[in-house]
């Protein structure tokens, strides 16, 4: 095959049996040297052109020229290249987190019992996940289906290529599922005895409407390890996440309270400096709290806001559209690359305060701010509270150029809202949305990006829909186990 844009490629594993050498006879590494890449391409020509006759003259294609392509080789103890494989984005253009393995070739005298092919496949899977892939697939010759099944791949469809039957196989990537399992899955069982006092329709929400008033209360704790490692940033984030919770409810913030544990006064002062800086930036006063010294690091903040019509996290319904609105400015927080996107520390106080108007301007049926479970996990929480399933169009989700999709969809993004709405709109930047070909100003801050990027359907969990129409399961069931909010 010479066209890298098609959705198929081939894996060749053929040859005679041989006596297995010792288990330490080869190692799989990245082909970082020109010599290793040249040896891999020479081996490919031997297998695909001369041995198999699948190509006429050369198997070189555009993927070989893509600087993002990664080549892995199995190298013997004497540096001989025994086999190789390449992994690469499945499509040209922006990397959406869809990666593909192709051109797996093994030297004839290293096949079968030596396990070179299987080792290369395993290494390719690990490398793809480390690069942020949320989908990884390959098209293999039908006689190799058994090998890939044994390695954990899942056949999806059968096709005919170059005169040979092939099978399109998927490697299951459970990055999002692992995240929600670690951060949210236990909540239903843990909190079941406390939900009786929650106002109807707001179970599992970002904030809690206070009965008999227009007040909304939100409370978040910061990871103790983060408080110890980066106390000023922890103080800043303690305010940030609580004000985001109020914003998701459509509430205007009015006051903060903090609870701090610290080993000594010097350390407490650093944490409180971050709290004070954030309080000043957002213009929300700290009106009280509690501080205890001589204890391990601990920090939580409570925020109070006001709204006469709080927006529930579970107000969505099947058929409604899903929208993501995010501040894509900034970059990865130092020492938190891939985990925390800092969109706030460079913003002016006026810009930060304007974010409270995002949800009121959108007037959604449901809203959640993206938190520890990432964008996909948070979407799953909105869907669960709404008694629905969510499907996200990966290519339509607003994302910064400096982050892989795998990281962006699982990180804490600074400011990002997932909302549900009855109308359907598309992508905009600078506070507008396009609908039916026209542009309508909805009063959003000019520095946020907003896009309709999915819908709520019947069922449970979250699916990711890719440009070829395939939907992969990111979350297989509910996120928290708390069920529908009403």
Q: What topology does this entry show?
A:
Layout: E1 26-30, H1 34-51, H2 62-65, E2 70-76, E3 81-89, E4 98-106, H3 116-130, E5 135-141, H4 145-150, E6 154-161, E7 164-171, H5 175-183, H6 187-191, E8 208-209, E9 215-222, H7 224-229, H8 231-248, E10 252-262, H9 265-282, E11 286-293, E12 298-306, E13 321-326, E14 331-332, E15 341-342, H10 349-354, H11 358-362, E16 366-369, H12 374-385, E17 389-393, H13 405-408, E18 416-421, E19 428-429, E20 432-435, E21 438-441, E22 449-457, E23 462-465, E24 471-475
Helix pairs in contact: 8-9
Structure description:
The chain is an alpha+beta fold. It folds into three domains: 148 residues, Gcn5-related N-acetyltransferase (GNAT) (Aminopeptidase, 3-Layer(aba) Sandwich); 188 residues, Phosphoribosyl-aminoimidazole Synthetase, Chain A, domain 2; 106 residues, 60s Ribosomal Protein L30, Chain: A (2-Layer Sandwich). The strands form five sheets. Strands 13, 16, 17, 18, 19, 22, 23 and 24 form an eight-stranded mixed sheet that branches. The longest helix is centred in the first third of the chain and has 18 residues. It starts with 25 loop residues before the first strand and ends in an 11-residue tail after the last strand. The N terminus is likely disordered.
